[in-house]
Design goal:
Length: 350
């Protein structure tokens, strides 16, 4: 009897000892991870490594003359968290980069890269991708479907014609920098970028002529730079961006808002656009557009009546609605469908 009681008392202690041992082994394993800095050594090729590649967590190969990275090398960097190969002569990245399942930061800026391998989508832990100053003409079409942890995407100073439609699925994205490209348009489904704080699509010069109306649904947006493009009119929905603190529009042939309004600052611009939206969607018929309902109930301008949530939602979802004047093309009508805006996939919160 005494023996059985002693066994019961010892068992919890044995479990605790095992847990401590596991934590200790984990910390030892983390201490064994190496940071390797081979930057600025004028390397034309990589030397044979003198250590286990799986032990490297950060590899800095920046500011060299590398023209390629061996497939076999990348495939063995199993614990890589940061890979910096900026300012080299790389024309492509190895397909085996998709093996880097723990990679969080990838910097390939300042190379000659014309495309990113589709396998980069397998780097699902990736939080920051810097591909500035390359020769990119397009990004992988399904990039946004897989890199759901991406917080910063920098692709400025390339030759991009479009951003993939899947960009709108990057719901963790906070910074999108696509200036100095050849962008013709932006994805229409921007409203899903619920965490986007900074959007820079400036200096696409003669190519970018308009912005999608959904840009007014970027509820976390703080900075918007659309300067030096060919934009003639800002979407009225920009007046709904309550958190917007900085708006750069210089270098555009703007007619709406007019120059004298822009000169008075962001607050006046937002007032102008909001008022234009409120008045522009009034219809003479009894059937009001669903956007008019959104304005009435305060979704856009924040001055709605204090009605119950259930009553408001019933007012939003209308079986019959009119398209917005001037934006009646099939692509815009799909974007403004009430069913689409209020689907479970849409995040429409303050």
């Amino acid at each position: 009897m005494m023996y059985e009681q002693q066994q019961r008392l010892q068992q919890p202690m044995m479990k605790m000892d095992v847990r401590k041992k596991t934590e200790r082994n984990k910390s030892i394993e983390e201490e064994r991870l190496e940071i390797v800095d081979l930057s600025g050594m004028s390397l034309d090729s990589l030397p044979n490594p003198s250590l286990n590649l799986a032990s490297i967590c950060k590899l800095d190969l920046s500011n060299n003359n590398l023209q390629s990275i061996p497939e076999s090398l990348t495939a063995r960097l199993l614990n890589m968290v940061v890979l910096d190969v900026r300012s080299n002569q790389l024309r492509s990245l190895p397909n085996s980069i998709g093996c880097l399942s723990k990679l969080k930061v990838l910097n390939v800026a300042g190379n000659l890269i014309e495309y990113l391998p589709k396998t980069i989508e397998n780097c699902r832990a990736l939080e920051e991708l810097n591909a500035n100053f390359n020769r990119l003409r397009q990004l992988p079409e399904t990039l946004g479907f897989e890199l759901t942890n991406l917080k910063k995407l920098s692709v400025n100073s390339n030759m991009l014609l479009f951003l993939p439609r899947s960009t709108s699925y990057l719901t963790a994205l906070k910074v999108l920098d696509a200036r100095l490209n050849c962008l013709r348009s932006l994805p229409e489904d921007l409203e899903n970028l619920i965490n986007l704080e900074i959007l820079n699509v400036s200096q696409n010069f003669q190519y970018l002529e308009s912005l999608p109306y959904s840009i007014g649904l970027l509820l976390s947006l703080v900075e918007l730079d659309v300067s030096y493009n060919k934009i003639k009119a800002l979407p009225d929905s920009i007046g709904c961006l309550k958190k917007l603190q900085k708006l750069s529009v210089e270098g555009n042939p703007l007619t709406s808002p007019p120059h004298e309004v822009v000169e008075q600052g962001l607050h006046v611009v937002k007032q102008y656009l909001c008022q234009k939206m409120n008045t522009g969607h009034q219809t003479p018929t009894k059937k009001k557009s669903w956007v008019g309902k959104l304005v009435k109930y305060g979704t856009f301008n924040g001055h709605g009546k204090n009605t119950g949530a259930r009553e408001e939602r019933e007012a939003f979802i209308m079986p019959e609605y009119r398209s917005i004047d001037g934006l009646a093309s099939p692509s815009y009508m799909g974007m403004f469908s009430p069913r689409r805006l209020f689907s479970p996939r849409t995040f429409f919160t303050n």
